[in-house]
Amino acid sequence: MRALLIVAIVAGLSSPAAAHAFLERASPAPGANLRAGPAKIELHFSEPLEPAFSGVTVVDDSGHDVTAGAASADGAEMDVVLRPLAPGRYRVSWHAVSVDTHRTEGKYNFLVLP
Predict the structure, then answer these.
(1) Long-range contact pairs involving 95-98 (C-beta distance under 8 Å, separation at least 24)
(2) What pTM was estimated for this model as a whole?
(3) d(CA 72, CA 78)
(4) What is the pLDDT of residues 48-106, one digit of tens each?
(5) Do the beta carbons of residue 21 and residue 76 sit within 8 Å?
(6) CA separation (Å) from 83 to 4, 80, 94?
(7) 54 and 43 Cβ atoms separated by less than 8 Å
(8) Could you tell me which residues come within 8 angstroms of residue 53 by beta carbon, excluding any fewer than 6 positions away?
């Protein structure tokens, strides 16, 4: 019984330390087909971010950066303003470092229809 209690306490203490900032939602959403290009990318994460170590880039099919400036992070939100987008496929690549220093990253595409 004592061993079970110790395991439960250790598991309870390690849960918060294992937190990561996972992408919960994005606008535009992964795989979205849009009639017009968005003015910015908005990402919402499960944990607050460390702004200095988090970022997002957006490139077109040719690999050209279409962002209009640096990404900004505030709490669990991160966004980046975009240049006007022509019809085509775009790739969003993000990396997020939560305030407890765990790093996550991901990529997704969206399409601007002609």
Answers:
(1) 95/53, 95/54, 95/55, 95/56, 96/21, 96/23, 96/43, 96/45, 96/49, 96/54, 97/21, 97/49, 97/50, 97/53, 97/54, 98/19, 98/20, 98/21, 98/45, 98/47, 98/48, 98/49, 98/50
(2) 0.82
(3) 6
(4) 999 999 999 999 999 999 999 999 999 999 999 999 999 999 999 999 999 888 999 99
(5) yes
(6) 57, 10, 18
(7) no
(8) 95, 97, 103
